[in-house]
Amino acid sequence: MKFNIKYITFSALLCASMVSCDLDVVPPSDISTETFWKNEKDAWNGLNALYAELPGMDIWDEMYTDNAHSHKPWEGPYELVQTNGITAGNDFGYGYSTVRIANNFIINVDKCDISEGLKERMKAEARFFRAWQYLQLTTKFGKAYLFTDVPEYNAPYAKRDPAEKVQAFILSELNEIAEILPDEYDGSYLYESSRITRAAALALRARAALYFGNYTEAEASAGKVISEGHHSLFRVTSLNAAQQQEADEMEKYIDFAEVGIDKDKFVKGLFSYETLWHKENANPGNPEYILTREYMADDNNCDWTRYTYIRPSQMGSGYSSFEPMQDLVDAYWSIDGKTLPEIPSEETRRARFADMWMKYFAEPVGETYKSVAPAVFREKVPTLDIKSIPYMQEFRNRDSRLYASILFPLKGWQETDFSGDFYYMWDPLKAGSDGNESWTGYNYRKLVSLTPYQGWQSVEDYPIIRYAEVLLTYAEARVQNNGWDEKVQHALNDLRDRCGMPNVPNSLSKDAALELVRNERRIELAAEGHRYDDIRRYGLEYCREAMNGESTAPCGGFDPVKKEWQKYVVIDKVWGDRLLLMPIPTSAMDVNPLLKDDQNPGY
């Protein structure tokens, strides 16, 4: 359903304000609620306004957590959240425009001359978007104003409804519309292939129930998506030349024979995971895509986040605006899929990195050092014995998803538009100074578009909900309900099989099972925007453990006076219990004075 943005923008404004127009189509004086809601084209345009509200890549919430970071304050208040410095002057998405657009559509579509069956289905789609927005509101702010009409702009001020009432509404709505929506569409006009399906409603309901701690309903809804069989995990069956080159290089990182891992399965698992976001696979036809945000080769409907903004500048162009942190890198499993690697202390890691850098990549200049040129670096890396370098040991024999998700020092990435072989260079002498390179020691590889649109943007569709999340939701909810059993193992082993990793253990206590599932969720869904919601629902003890203390880079610059390599602190995280909920923004309280006495605790 590649909508023309002209119609989307027009419809969104009309549905939200009731007084808009598209100058290419109709004179402004002819647009009104009385003249618009007449036929199936009006219904199509009106509903498309809601599809325009779909988010794309949601790395933003991830940068509030121990997973990711942005060293550019103009990108958002990410460090303020990580250090408990936010105020009511920050707005974290407190708004009801999507709800209003949905309500307006539901009320007015009955005026259109279309079949009753089509009206019911379209209303169900609109109700999905309304439920989606209420889920965003209640997970961030707790209570929310619940309404299903279209209030006048001079309507009386309204109080927020209790979170429990909002949660019940979301679950009830998604349960009802799942019985109305079809399993799939045939791709024709009004039945475009990426419209909201029954599986999307059930998957969102499973997510919501998990967030609310309603594990019975979470398991039930996720279980229906699984058992009904309309979705599966994406898998590749062969490798292209660039992938095969990297597969051969993986011998430096995985001791396949010694650890009993099938190389072919492992490398195909790596690329099965990585390429599900790549252009040739990024579309509603991907069996893993349950809800898709579509993009076009169009200046008004492309994705500006997944090429230049996420890449390092050393690839030719890049801003490194979003960067993974050491905390996330440390969370990826060892090759056995059940234990974490031995994590060196900050001092040991820094010393190992400095030794490697001075030996291979730095040249003395008077009392200090300078790094070799990137071209020299790229020539040297393939000649090195990675297995013999102490610093590189923490990247050896790890989960395949680490290699598919993270660019770490010296690692090659050949399936890109970079001219020649690419090896990732993290220069400690630029830590905290080069704004277009990472300050954490790492860049993302997962989600990154391989080729640009218009030189710096991308056009790949994005899976807002994918089947992997449903499997994880089912596993976590079932552990909460029944403990570790064969059904939990089967769901998780599907994920492990896809990425070429060993099966999960056959026997675990409930506490150990929850710990495993939570970490599996963290690395499988890394950079997809789930982490902040997850750590808060895990409880205060988890939040205080994860969100306090320093996150550091592998190494900092060289101090010529002390003659030592410095520690570089990316962020000194500070958790405050008030962060369980975001503040109602001052802008909202200015509009509705009743909110001033209903501010969330701690703000």
From TrEMBL:
What UniProt keywords apply to this chain's record, in alphabetical order?
Cell outer membrane, Membrane, Signal
Is Signal given among the entry's keywords?
Answer: yes
| SUPFAM superfamilies recorded | TPR-like (SSF48452)
Q: Which residues form the signal peptide?
A: 1-22
Its protein name is: RagB/SusD family nutrient uptake outer membrane protein
The primary site where this protein sits is: membrane
Q: Tell me the domain of life.
A: Bacteria
| Residue ranges annotated for the RagB/SusD domain, each copy included | 287-603
Gene Ontology cellular component annotations, sorted alphabetically? cell outer membrane
Which protein family is named in the record? Answer: Belongs to the SusD family.
Domain SusD-like N-terminal: residue ranges: 61-209
The cellular location(s) given in this protein's UniProt record come to:
Cell outer membrane
